[in-house]
Amino acid sequence: MAEGESCNASAVERKEDFEIIDRTLIPNITELKETGWSAPIFSLAKKASENLAVSYGNALKSAALAGLVPKPVSNDNTAKTTVKCHTMEERSNLMNMMKLSIKVLIQSALSLGRTLDSDFPPLQQFFVVMEHCLKHGLKAKKSFIGQNKSFFGPLELVEKLCPEASDIATSVKNLPELKTAVGRGRAWLYLALMQKKLADYLKVLLDHKPLLSEFYEPDALMMEEEGAVIVGLLVGLNVLDANLCLKGEDLDSQVGVIDFSLYLKDIQNSDDSKQDAGITAVLDQKHYVEELNRHLSPNLVHPKAIYDKTMQLIYGLCQNSNWCFKLAAATDRIGSLQEEQQQLKHQNELIRERSEKSVEELEKELELQIGMKTEMEIAMKLLEKDTHEKQDTLVALRQQLEEVKAINLQMFHKSQNSESSLQQKKETISSFEGKTNQMMSTMKQMEESSILEKELKSEKEQRQTLQRELHQEKDTTSLLKTELQQMEGLKKELRKLQDEKQQLEKVCEEQEQALQEMGQHLSQSKLKMEDIKEVNKALKGHTWLKDDEATHCKQCEKEFSISRRKVVVVSG
User: Fold this and answer.
1) Whether residues 93 and 187 fall in one domain
2) Which keywords accompany this UniProt record (predicted)?
């Protein structure tokens, strides 16, 4: 309509003449509907957005030339303003996403009976959006492993500020399945939602913003007005009953991605050829309506001029009595012209109403398409952030895998060395057993020979005196004592060898058990790496001792093995 009015104004100023169009050429409302007035709008919205961008750029150029737009002062100021605008857009986007998620959650829950489970998709998406809101502007804690962002830190303040939240904190700490701060924060949100006090706890946090400034940046969502708006929206969730089971849930996983399919309406797009045909039909109809308006506007002025001329003629005819019959004809002509003028006005109003309705429909559809475009841009930005975070986690996991491989190689070399030492000890044991068998056979031969000598001497020396027998007996006793001493030494050596053999067998069994345990530990590498991180944190300022110097643990007083690492605390 704006284009039609501008065309009318230009036509009046230039005093251009137009032909009167016949009524039969003007289409009816039914004809306009049959020709496809409601065609696809996607390409129309795209063209309209391009036209708006061009017009906006031209307006900015003209304003800059006129001195209305301020010129940039410096690059630092522009960078700061862009960062502020970016954070403001992030806060508004997160607040709008929270509105949508809460609205969809309440509507879907009311349709299902107001009871929610952990597998309910709108509830899962609500927790994902809530986690993104709590992570916005969160300060990173630096450690020797890297930077760590966790929203569980500010949630722990609720226990100090509100004693009613102590039950949630204790139950979260007592859960054995949670091993990261992210998992504890998610469990805290689950329990607070089940208690219907999530909004109250977050309101307590917002009332103590000086404490929150230790965890959040000044322009974070929780530090601005959007945080209070989100807390007000969370009050509506007290209508719902949530039955969430924390056992078996993988709460230590990465941050989820927002699923926009729950919030976007499905659009059934036809083929490109049909779209182009419909769009051209709509544009042709629009141009036709504007052309009709432009043609009809001067026709409204033309009957007025004719009316003035006829009145002048009537005045002249009244002076002359001979022209009375012409006066009657002129009056009839004036009546017919007035009727045609009223009909043209009515038709013009109908055409204007149709064009206004069509323009309003196009504007509404254009606004919908612009909203969808902004939502898709937000989704793309969030997806880019998620991909960057996942790439960082992949790099960290690759480094951890390389460290695990190095540890596995060290353990493999140690196992090979232990096997070689076992083989050497087995060979020494077999040699000692052969020597003991030889000694036993020699002992038996010596005993037999001594008995035979005694018998021979007794037969030969029966006639000798008792003194010789005594001397011989003393000699034999001394020999036997020496032999007994040798036997006792050999028995002691045998016992030592047997004890060593038992110890070696125990070491072999322990090493086999250690190898089995190492296989199980290697299969659970993910869990062990987190334990190693905690041990590394606790081992600052400690040193490793040699395996020969440390035999028992100083805390639990248990004997060390290959699976138990040996650490001693050095004071100072």
Assistant:
1) yes
2) Coiled coil
